[in-house]
Amino acid sequence: MLTFLFEDDFIVERVNFVFCPANAPSLPRVLALQVLFDDSRAVASTLRLFQGVYQMPAPINPPPDFKPQLMYPLIANLPVTFWDLGTVEAVYQPIPGKALIRGQFWLTAKNVVRECGDIPQLPNP
User: Fold this and answer.
1) Considering only CA atoms, which of 85, 18, 26 is closest in space to residue 58?
2) DSSP output for 52-63
3) What distance in Å separates the CA atoms of residue 5 and residue 34, rounded to the nearest whole number?
4) In whole angstroms, what is the distance from residue 113 CA to residue 72 CA?
């Protein structure tokens, strides 16, 4: 589905699913997904495409005490964009200097994070 959605603007290189741990009180559930993609063929900036084509709202400007839903494996000293979509948190970070993976995009279900308890290690880009 993501490859279809991103097919004209981004080349999806890998999709990682993060599940609640096996000892979580509910059935195994996806709590987040990470999309690693190449935006080198995009006709506009990735942020402009996310907001214009993919209808993302304006990103939030997190206050200094902001705590994301997960400890995302973000690369230090690179910009990060957060969106609050109500029940979902979205995160985008460009990854310069790599041949095939030039950005990572996360979607995290806030209610599933609260239900999961111990969160597993998240995959690095």
Assistant:
1) 85
2) HTS---PPB---
3) 15
4) 13
